[in-house]
Amino acid sequence: MADEQSLHHLLTVAEAAAREAGAIASAIYNQAEVKQWAKGEDNPLTEADLAVDRLLHERLLAAAPEFGWLSEETLDDPARLGRDWVWVVDPIDGTKEFLQKVPHWTISIGLVHRGVPQLGVVFNPTEDLLVAGVVGEGTTANGAPVAMAAAVELAGAHLVGSRSEQKRGEFDDVADLYRFEAVGSIAYKLALLATGRCDIYYTLSPKHEWDICGGHALVVAAGGRVTQKDGAPILYNQPKAKYRSVVAANATLHAKLLERLKDVPVSPDLHGR
């Protein structure tokens, strides 16, 4: 199953599924009212999340029925822990932006083998931007090859991050260096990084595997690095499926950013899930 031809086929399946899901989500996005529920504090769920989750589950597992499945909107099945290959999916990453009509939400698909990302697809329907890649083979945006930015100095680096994290002071330790841009979806931030439209993404707030997996694969496919703040790897299909920090950039900036953040504490886990 690990051969190159199979991965290319699965990437094609994932790209098609993302576009089909994007059409469903966009139709709901453009409605005057969207059905929504609260999964917890500051954690909305919409009819689009559920519809996209069903579609992706059907399309992706039809292509590889033996694979495991981890999605934000599917009841977790511990059987995934015994699978070598696992789809890691966020049906709508940026649900709050989706509800606020901010065009920073995405459909994020990642595929991992024994915890390591192998391919990723992140699709922003409102921008009609589909970023896809297989690790070791490069990343494309709407089919055209792209590359990460070549910046090698933190001074002046273009950082994408969450407005709420900025307000909490999470970027204060490098505030003398970066040019900040607020972007919603985590997967979208990583996709922008993989396509060279920014230089750095990092967060010191807890993130679930489905938030980061698809984008992680894109950054690595584009030649970049993604780790925890202490440099430890981010592996997927873990029992808790959550990490306390993410740092992503090209190899040179990544090393410098890890050094700069070495003594900076991570933020508290406010939700605990």
Spatial arrangement of strands, main beta sheet:
3-4-5-6-7-8-9
Q: How many domains is the backbone divided into?
A: 2
CATH-level-2 architecture of the largest domain: 2-Layer Sandwich
Which residue ranges are poorly predicted, with pLDDT under 50 across at least 5 consecutive positions?
A: none
Q: How much helix, percentage-wise, in residues?
A: 25-40%
Can you offer a commentary on this structure?
It is a single chain. The chain is α+β, with helices and mostly antiparallel strands and 273 residues long. The chain folds into 2 domains: 4-146, Fructose-1,6-Bisphosphatase, Chain A, domain 1, CATH 3.30.540; 158-261, D-Maltodextrin-Binding Protein, domain 2. Helices cover 32% and strands 27% of the residues. It is built from 7 helices and 16 strands. The strands form 4 sheets. A 7-stranded mixed beta sheet has the order 3-4-5-6-7-8-9, with helices on both faces. It has a 5-stranded mixed beta sheet with strand order 11-10-12-16-14, with helices on both faces. Helix 1 packs antiparallel against helix 2. The protein starts with a helix and ends in a 12-residue tail after the last helix.
